[in-house]
Amino acid sequence: MAEDVIIEYRDVSKRFGEHVVLDGVNLTVRRGETLTIVGRSGTGKSVMLKTLTGLVPVDAGRIFVDGDEVTAMEEDDMREVRRKIGMLFQNAALFDSMTIFENVAYPLAEHTDYSEAKRLEIAKETLEMVDLQGIEDQFPGELSGGMKKRVGLARAIALRPPIVLYDEPTTGLDPITSNVINRLIRRLQRKLEITSIVVTHDLESAFMITDRIAMLHEGKIISVQTTEEFRRAQDERIHEFATGGLSEEELRSVGRVL
User: Fold this and answer.
1) Residues 143/92, Cβ–Cβ less than 8 Å
2) How many whole angstroms separate alpha carbon 158 and alpha carbon 169?
């Protein structure tokens, strides 16, 4: 594996029954970059993230994380790999019965022997990184959707993992709150030198946060490009996805410019 590559998919395939989701996926992610995976709903973008963490086993192919082949690992070995990977789930996936402190500190309790005082110190520091202070004793039900996402993000980085995965981080949020999340993703990537993989169908968010865009189409990665290359792409499949099938005149009428 090349020195600057931290994640690699080699000919990865996955099907559910007769439905082929991933069909020989090949992709490399460079250390320290933000790579965004786009594609139509139901194309397998989230499945790609879950195969990386071992939550979904692959049918064929190999996946490497920081030089280790995770597709060949036993469950005990996967625990150490998962410590290197934080994940922000689509719905934030907070534990409603736990306080915000307990939610953010959950990975610390699972993977370290830190005292409660140390966990609280790290949780407070991490919440400050996502612009949330003084809410440690509240519960998820008391928070807005955007605040829940930020708490989920704090939990994802509590262990200071070198890799963070984002599954539709702006889904269900208004444009202003989406921009807050996007700026946080970019800021944390730079501050903590995180390698990020973002799954989204929101191209405006992708253009704001990403270094490269990979497009998943019919089970395969058909393109990996910078944002500027993606904007100029002549491939009809990319153009149709980027424009939503609208003509140039229709795009101008709704104020959408690539």
Assistant:
1) no
2) 17
